[in-house]
């Protein structure tokens, strides 16, 4: 196990990249703490799999270095890096039994005999497959195969990190929950560094200690699920995370007041004069439907069980509001934003109250 | 199930197919069956012969020998073409211009008519004018496929390998291309050796297409006629007289319609039986596993 350091890492699939548009992954400098669970979250094609493949060594970065602990592994082959990877589609050796599958990485490293046997049985117990050791891997369900992939990774006790590339894509919904819970438990128990690539925010937020949000080859924010929810560093994070996402309204900010087309909104703090395209962002959870405030026109109310989502127009801008189940919506609805929950953005990036723009 | 309407007029719908199959397969086969149980001395007069021709065919040492030669031939070409085809497929480029070039090059022998293949090798191997024959003679190697049975065998086997290994290679290549990259990546991470990758990933994934390749090559080689006929004509002596060459000699050379018809039917049944055995044995493992 080791800390993973990405130093000036960037990748382009073109031989001679010219502008930033040619990069599948734009320059990233970051340290991944030893033993933490990370999730790489972003839409398809955002570069998260590219980043993962560079860490695992399946892809050679065009710029920058990767360190595991103090060792520069940039030029090392996958096998030398001692990482494990669980792929999108379950990869098992069909003709082998569950036991042989789990023992395979050990055998290839020359570990045999009782030590190997004990380790295989231990791992099988951990992933809950100890009663099916003699079954052929071919006949297993997708979730059992993914467990074997994971087990094959963990069977080596010197593994530096376990990488997951959208591992729950082909798993039935009811098994997803179980696998994720099991993964979390294994992480707590053994403390492997885990990096989990997904485009599903629920998976990312429930799995990871820290979520790395990416879009268009760029890391826009690294933070805990709470940080991503309360203080999205970029408007992309605001609307990508949350269901529905953050409401963004063009505004003029003067001190602690934001002027939007519908009226004035009080902010939680005072801001300096801002240049560029200024927006305020407020999550649907922090808008209250009341008798006073800014007038809205309600288009539709969706009842999603525990709460209702109100789709409304606030002076020609569509906004989403989340109201508790059973809450009354007045005949002439007006809304109020919770000042503390409003974030201010300039050119897409969050502006800290009274301070500078944030960057990832 | 019982409330389904029953309408026997639906049988009329299959009538065209029944008629077609009758004319294309069943009727010609029946004439052979007809000949096989009768004897004739000309003048279109036939006498009932019962199972005589079958008994004679089954006990005829000439046919036994042809049968053994046939088994030997099929075994040898399978033993060469399957591993060689897989080896070629493993070493073919995966993508790019060279992949296409290789595919076209590999497909070429498959596109040449059989008698042309025979003629090519017949000339190629000739000691007086053939490139191969002259070269071997020039190197001091005593090679003459018209006189030496071993040379004749080597020639027709090399010819068949040249003609048909491509088929195995192309099928194996298709099987290999269908393996997702993740398998190779996982194998790298597991530090699997090249042999382990072949044994545990590539071979299991190629199994389906290889089964087809082996079946096709077995059936085809067991029925082979044109190429060895053009090259050696079954000689020298009877050394390369394979089953179908022997059959044609019997039916058209000697005009022994009865024995030839019995021979044909037995030949057909043997191919059917062996193909079935091949298929059953090779799919038995799958069936065993799916029962678990």
Automatic annotation (TrEMBL), chain A:
The lineage of its organism: Bacteria, Pseudomonadati, Pseudomonadota, Alphaproteobacteria, Rhodobacterales. One of its GO terms (cellular component) is ATP-binding cassette (ABC) transporter complex, substrate-binding subunit-containing. It comes from the Bacteria. Belongs to the ABC transporter superfamily. Residues 4-241 form the ABC transporter domain. PANTHER family: ABC TRANSPORTER ATP-BINDING PROTEIN, MALTODEXTRIN IMPORT ATP-BINDING PROTEIN MSMX. This is ABC transporter ATP-binding protein. Keywords: ATP-binding, Cell membrane, Membrane, Nucleotide-binding, Transport. PROSITE patterns: ABC_TRANSPORTER_2 (PS50893). The keyword Transmembrane helix does not apply. One of its GO terms (molecular function) is ABC-type ferric iron transporter activity. The keyword Cell membrane applies.
TrEMBL record, chain B:
Keywords: Membrane, Transmembrane, Transmembrane helix, Transport. The chain crosses the membrane at residues 12-37, 71-90, 97-124, 152-176, 208-226, 260-282. It holds the Pfam family BPD_transp_1. GO terms for cellular component: plasma membrane. Residues 67-278 form the ABC transmembrane type-1 domain. It is found in: Cell membrane. Its main location: membrane. It is a multi-pass membrane protein. It comes from the Bacteria. InterPro entries: MetI-like, MetI-like_sf, Sugar_ABC_transporter. GO terms for biological process: transmembrane transport. Belongs to the binding-protein-dependent transport system permease family. This is Sugar ABC transporter permease. It comes from Thermohalobaculum xanthum.
């Amino acid at each position: 196990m080791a800390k993973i350091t990405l130093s000036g890492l960037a990748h382009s699939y073109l031989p001679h990249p010219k502008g930033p548009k040619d990069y599948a992954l734009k320059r990233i400098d970051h340290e991944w703490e030893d033993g933490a669970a990370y999730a790489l979250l972003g839409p398809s094609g955002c570069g998260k799999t590219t980043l993962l493949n560079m860490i695992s060594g399946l892809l050679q970065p065009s710029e920058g270095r990767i360190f595991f602990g103090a060792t520069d592994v940039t030029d090392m082959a996958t096998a030398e890096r001692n990482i494990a990877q669980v792929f999108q589609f379950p990869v098992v050796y069909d003709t082998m039994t569950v036991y042989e599958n789990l023992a395979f990485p050990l055998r290839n490293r020359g570990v045999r005999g009782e030590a190997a046997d004990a380790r295989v049985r231990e791992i099988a117990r951990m992933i809950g497959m100890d009663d099916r050791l003699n079954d052929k891997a071919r006949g297993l369900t997708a979730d059992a195969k993914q467990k074997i992939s994971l087990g094959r990774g963990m069977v080596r006790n010197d593994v530096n990190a376990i990488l997951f590339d959208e591992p729950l894509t082909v798993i039935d919904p009811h098994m997803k929950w179980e696998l994720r819970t099991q993964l979390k438990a294994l992480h707590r128990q053994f403390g492997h560094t885990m990096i989990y690539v997904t485009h599903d925010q629920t998976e990312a937020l429930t799995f990871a200690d820290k979520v790395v949000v990416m879009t268009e080859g760029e890391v826009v924010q690294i933070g805990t699920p709470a940080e991503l929810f309360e203080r999205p560093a970029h408007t992309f994070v605001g609307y990508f995370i949350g269901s529905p996402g953050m409401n963004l309204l063009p505004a003029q900010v003067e001190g602690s007041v934001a002027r939007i087309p519908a009226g004035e909104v009080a902010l939680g703090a005072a801001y300096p004069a801002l240049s560029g395209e200024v927006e305020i962002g407020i999550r649907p959870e922090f808008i209250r439907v009341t008798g006073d405030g800014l007038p809205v026109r309600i288009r539709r109310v969706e009842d999603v069980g525990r709460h209702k989502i109100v789709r409304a127009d606030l002076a020609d801008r569509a906004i989403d509001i989340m109201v508790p189940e059973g809450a009354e919506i007045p005949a002439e609805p007006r809304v109020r934003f919770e000042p503390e929950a409003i974030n201010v953005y300039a050119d897409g990036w969050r502006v800290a109250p009274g301070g500078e723009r944030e960057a990832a | 199930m019982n409330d389904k309407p029953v309408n026997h007029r639906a049988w009329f719908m299959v009538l065209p197919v029944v008629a077609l199959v009758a004319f294309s397969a069943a009727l010609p086969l029946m004439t052979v069956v007809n000949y096989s149980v009768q004897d004739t001395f000309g003048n279109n007069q036939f006498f009932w012969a019962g199972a005589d021709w079958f008994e004679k065919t089954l006990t005829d040492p000439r046919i036994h020998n042809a049968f053994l030669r046939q088994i030997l031939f099929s075994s040898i070409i399978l033993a060469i073409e399957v591993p060689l085809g897989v080896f070629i497929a493993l070493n073919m480029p995966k993508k790019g211009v060279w992949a296409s070039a290789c595919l076209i090059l590999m497909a070429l022998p498959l596109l040449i008519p059989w008698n042309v293949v025979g003629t090519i090798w017949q000339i190629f191997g000739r000691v007086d004018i053939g490139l191969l024959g002259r070269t071997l003679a020039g190197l001091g190697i005593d090679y003459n496929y018209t006189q030496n049975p071993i040379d004749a065998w080597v020639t027709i086997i090399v010819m068949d390998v040249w003609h048909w290994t491509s088929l195995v290679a192309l099928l194996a290549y298709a099987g290999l291309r269908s393996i997702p990259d993740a398998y190779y990546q996982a194998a790298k991470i597991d530090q699997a050796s090249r042999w382990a990758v072949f044994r545990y990933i590539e071979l299991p994934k190629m199994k389906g297409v290889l089964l087809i390749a082996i079946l096709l090559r077995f059936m085809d080689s067991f029925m082979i006629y044109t190429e060895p006929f053009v090259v050696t004509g079954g000689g020298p002596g009877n050394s390369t007289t394979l089953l179908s060459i022997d059959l044609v000699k019997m039916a058209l050379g000697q005009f022994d319609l009865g024995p030839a018809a019995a021979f044909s039917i037995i030949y057909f049944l043997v191919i059917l039986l062996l193909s079935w055995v091949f298929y059953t044995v090779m799919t038995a493992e799958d069936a065993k596993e799916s029962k678990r």
